[in-house]
Specification:
The complex is a heterodimer of chains A (191) and B (210). Chain A has 191 residues and is an alpha+beta fold. Chain A has one domain. In chain A, the strands form 2 sheets. A 5-stranded antiparallel beta sheet of chain A has the order 1-2-3-4-5, sandwiched between helices. Chain A has a two-stranded parallel ribbon with strand order 6-7. In chain A, strand 1 and strand 2 form a beta hairpin. Chain B has a two-stranded antiparallel sheet. Classes of the chains: A alpha+beta (191), B mainly alpha (210). Chains A and B meet through helix 1 of A and helix 4 of B.
Chain lengths: 191, 210
């Protein structure tokens, strides 16, 4: 009897707020993605539930959204990706250009990295290195010029594990999503 | 008659004030240490956590008090957990719907209120043995006491770590032309343990002096 009553209470709360919760998640995704694609007018789900191998035999489902300009042309793609960081999972939004040739950057959806150290992955010093980088395998280096935009990402001092985690997430998700999108004929083969 | 009402109001006042100082869940009973250490890096999440605990504590005490005569002894812990889990789920959904940023900042610590000792302790020690009014007063007093303790701890940590309180900058850092040097360790778990230890020592010292 009590279980039934409590179940009803939770179901009522869920029914009342579920729409708003989903809308909040959608808004957060769109706002973050729009920071990297300011010309995007809207984001439309292009493919749902792509299975991505995250290594160690684990698989993760993700959806890819198409960024549309005001005239309806596709100007990029955005998708959620995640992997293990130093403290916990790091969840990102990765944005690439329309041809999957160049990264437009990444946004941090959730991260519990050490304040002042690992959480510097959210700061421009690190994030800006991904803007314009080629959409291919990235390499983390401990020394180098962070202003030089190429496939070499310079690690944050004292936060190599968090820096490596972001690079690994990109390296893991990007080729798999790209293959899927190309196979489905949503873009050219990028050659 | 007048004596009876005086005694009753005295009991209510005593119950309310017990949670604030004499039986403060954090500083005197050392209950609910997990959120106390985990969410006090800044005042905003600490205050939000406190409000969630007040909501869960009041609602669960009301339900437990109302059904106390129906409870079979061997089922009571199960019923307490079920009751607490329901209100924690509602609080979690509410935060996700209306305070999504705060919900993310608090992460798993809102669902973890289910295993917060303060709530099960008040259900067992007070609500399952007392009437509705005294259970509500006890929940409010304990909840406010818990929130107050969290906010004191968070204020110390936030100001030393960032020079701000409630995200309002009050100490200018050297980078901004001031003298303040942010003490990053204060926003990390080590800062929580040190601050809690010092505050507990201070409170013990004050209590013994009195």
């Amino acid at each position: 009897m009590a279980s039934f009553f409590f179940g009803l209470l939770i179901a009522a709360a869920n029914a009342a707020w579920q729409e708003r919760i989903l809308q909040n998640e959608e808004d957060k995704f769109n706002n973050l993605a729009r920071q990297m694609l300011p010309d995007a007018n809207s984001f439309e789900t292009a493919v749902e539930n792509i299975e991505v191998d995250t290594g160690k035999g684990k698989k993760k489902l993700t959806s890819v959204k198409k960024a549309l300009a005001t005239d309806g042309t596709c100007i990029g793609w955005a998708f959620k990706c995640e992997g293990s960081g130093f403290a916990d999972k790091i969840k990102l939004i990765l944005v690439v250009d329309a041809g999957f040739q160049q990264l437009k950057g990444f946004g941090v959806l959730a991260s519990y990295e050490t304040p002042g150290i690992g959480d510097q992955i959210k700061l421009p010093y690190y994030r800006n290195q991904f803007i314009g980088a080629p959409a291919e395998k990235l390499i983390l280096s401990k020394i180098g010029d962070p202003e030089k935009i190429d496939s070499e990402i310079v690690a944050i001092s004292k936060a190599t594990i968090s820096s490596q985690a972001v690079v690994d997430i990109v390296n893991n998700f990007l080729p798999q999503i790209k293959d899927y999108i190309v196979t489905k004929g949503l873009i050219g083969n990028g050659g | 008659m007048a004596d009876n009402s005086d005694i009753t109001s005295g009991i209510y006042k005593d119950t309310l004030l017990a949670g604030l100082w004499r039986e403060n869940p954090v500083f005197r009973l050392l209950l609910g240490m997990c959120p106390t250490l985990a969410v006090t890096a800044a005042v905003k999440p600490a205050f939000t956590m406190g409000c969630c605990v007040i909501f869960v504590l009041v609602c669960s005490n009301i339900v437990v008090s109302l059904m106390r005569n129906l409870l079979k002894p061997h089922l009571r812990i199960l019923m307490f957990t079920l009751t607490i889990a329901t209100f924690v789920t509602i609080a979690d959904l509410f935060l996700k719907a209306f305070q999504p940023a705060m919900s993310e900042a608090l992460g798993p610590y809102v669902p973890l209120i289910i295993v917060n000792c303060i709530i099960i302790c008040r259900a067992e020690a007070c609500a399952s043995k007392n009437g509705l009014v005294i259970s509500i007063i006890d929940a409010v007093g304990m909840g406010i006491g818990f929130t107050m303790a969290l906010c004191i701890l968070a204020s110390v940590r936030e100001i030393l770590a960032t020079g701000a309180i409630f995200e309002i900058q009050i100490l200018a850092s050297q980078r901004e032309g001031g003298w303040f040097v942010p003490w990053v360790a204060m926003s990390m778990p080590v800062g929580a343990f040190i601050t809690l230890g010092l505050l507990l020592g201070l409170i013990n010292f004050v209590t013994k002096k009195r």
